[in-house]
Amino acid sequence: MKILIIGGGMGGTILANNLARRLTPELRSGKVRITMLTASDKHMYQPGLLYLAFGRVTPDELYKDQASLLEPGIALHVDPAEEFLLDDNKVKTKSGKSFDYDVLAIATGSRAAPELIPGLAENSQTFYTEETALAMFRALREFQGGRVVVAVGVPHKCPMAPLEITFMLHDYFKDRGLADKVKLHYTYPIGRIHSLENVAKWAAPEFDRLGITYETLFNLKEVDGAKKVIRGEEGGETPYDLLVSIPAHRGMEVIEKNKLGAGGWIPTHRQQLNMEGRSNVFILGDTTNIPISKAGSTAHFQADTLGENIAAMFKLGAPVRDYDGKVFCFIEAGKDRATYAMFDYLNPPDPKPPTKAVHWFKMAYNKLYWTSARGLL
């Protein structure tokens, strides 16, 4: 059996390692081959970008060599996929090589797409790449007061990011002695301040307590950098002195170019995680079109399911379990308090009051991420 994994992020890495451990004898005998195609020889801890924007980590802390995270026997090629020939069970790469497969797993991730909103990329700060997180760090250091607007687009990576960045901004300016000179304002596209109802019910009183104002049903239409206002599709207009954005995300360009799914999201069975219409092509992480949170934990739990199922397909001839929609997200509620949300297809989240203990557990996880990526946590 030839297993080909596209993408070396959280989902692809955990899946590869999971399969390598489940199929160790078969790998050694040559009955199974596991190949990974990735765009970079470095693996980034993406949640760390939020902390980079506040100067709480340095860029070098976010990276490890991808090869060092993989189990023996996994063939790593830093050669990104360019063409998916699904009817022929082949993938062609940027270098022109062709890789055939019996089972294909696509975990290409997602990307922020500020270019979808006129003026957003040029006039807002964000943190979804190392470059933009460093630019936000510099902008925050230079900011001396005024109206800070956090504008949110959907869908986006990390469901709690809009709340986390807002709480962290509040504490950041408080620590700098600028609390009385900064006014935080938050906009969200639907009729509450978070897509998950129970999370919104928890967060709104927290915003009220901290004096953070918010505006719902605000779908960003354009940013007027000259006038320093954002305008919504509904006709509203909000001024800013510093604009922080959570841009709407899309799937990766290679998915769109190959017409595998609108917006770069591949149609995926919500329990079996196979691409609709394909029994030997599986999708995980941000790449799916499943309407659940695009988070590292989502990719992790999906990779666990797929690892067990793909190994079972080889050994038993059929998958053995369903993915239940499980997601676990920490929610930073400032610089030293946090809570969490755990939920699945049937059970909604129920965040508890933030504590310092959960914050420090989150900080510990930041260090343990590399163990998690190896599939050992």
Radius of gyration: 21 Å
From the helix content, strand content and strand pairing, which structural class follows?
Answer: alpha/beta
Unreliable stretches (pLDDT < 50, length at least 5) are none
| Lateral strand order in the biggest sheet | 5-2-1-9-19
Assess the beta-strand content as a share of residues: 15-25%
Using the alpha-carbon principal axes, give the shape.
Answer: globular
Report mean pLDDT, rounded to a whole number: 95
Please describe the biggest sheet, giving its number of strands, its sense, and whether it closes into a barrel.
5 strands, parallel
Number of helices: 10
List how many beta strands DSSP finds: 21
Q: N-to-C terminal Cα separation, in Å?
A: 27 Å
Please give a handful of descriptors for the protein shown.
five-stranded parallel β-sheet, alpha/beta, globular, four-stranded parallel β-sheet, 377 residues, single chain, 24% strand
